[in-house]
């Protein structure tokens, strides 16, 4: 059942290339220049009238939403607000019929997410569900479903569901940009080509995980650590931090790199591990300054970045790990993989139950 892998989580991490391919299949036209989403009832007119988007979800699905919403803002220039589902309806969100609400849920059964969907409906919004279970309550109640085709996810810690949610968001963002004319055909084709390269790039990363394993064994001896990143990288490290907490029970915090000095820097002491994710090259120099602040207080910094930046970064960090290069908006689909592996190997090094962490259930049907 685990297909030769020691754990479902490891199997599901390795299924990501297939999940990416399956989620893209049939949604990119033969020319490779256009996204097609024939399953959508949402009309072009409705798309042109969207004034704002709300993305609502819990946990890992929320983290996928953070990336997805940021991609939509960049490609389509529609304002996006993000909410964890348990907060959404209690803050009287400003929903109108021109608001598009996107709920994200692997299981499609999360109680808070379902309640958020109903709140959106009560206020006349069109709701799109990005879900992995097409027969689920959330899929049934939503006006539209964009199915992630990741296959069943058994491990409590979500991996392939998250990353295929990213693929679904990329496709949907491109689709919106086509209708609203915010990207040229050439720009769309360029992004599609980069998306089509992602599965192989993930395979390449999974072929060699020795360095991340060694590093995970190192951090498994610590009780606290930090993740930092900017922009899309900040969204991804929030997911990396959750994954690590969830299955290794190591306390970690994910910080926007520039925010550390506004208080939390006080916690940086000799030897504390700090993982810096650096794929957003426009803000790389800024993150390097933040790394220097950490180093000056004795933090031990591991950078995860593109090969070409490692030689210069090694002047400011203790260790570095390379990931394959892609477009800035697609980086999450690659950079999350070493963070998943880090959590997996740290859990393993601590002798914990990787697939069934304490206190947690796969599907959360209470509010
Ligand atoms: C973490 C994890 C949870 C879920 C969350 C939402 O690894 O799996 O944070 O992402 O409980 O679940 P779904 O996506 O089923 O709504």
UniProtKB/TrEMBL annotation:
Per UniProt, the keywords (alphabetical) are: Aminotransferase, Cytoplasm, Glutamine amidotransferase, Repeat, Transferase
Provide the reaction this enzyme catalyses: D-fructose 6-phosphate + L-glutamine = D-glucosamine 6-phosphate + L-glutamate
GO MF entries: carbohydrate derivative binding; glutamine-fructose-6-phosphate transaminase (isomerizing) activity
Localization recorded for this chain is: Cytoplasm
Q: Which GO terms describe its biological process?
A: carbohydrate metabolic process; fructose 6-phosphate metabolic process; protein N-linked glycosylation; UDP-N-acetylglucosamine metabolic process
Task: Please give the GO cellular component terms listed in this UniProt entry.
Answer: cytosol
Q: What does this protein do?
A: Catalyzes the first step in hexosamine metabolism, converting fructose-6P into glucosamine-6P using glutamine as a nitrogen source.
Could you identify this protein by its name? Answer: Glutamine--fructose-6-phosphate aminotransferase [isomerizing]
Task: Report the source organism.
Answer: Paenibacillus yonginensis
**Gene encoding the protein:** glmS
Range covered out of full length: 244 to 610 of 610
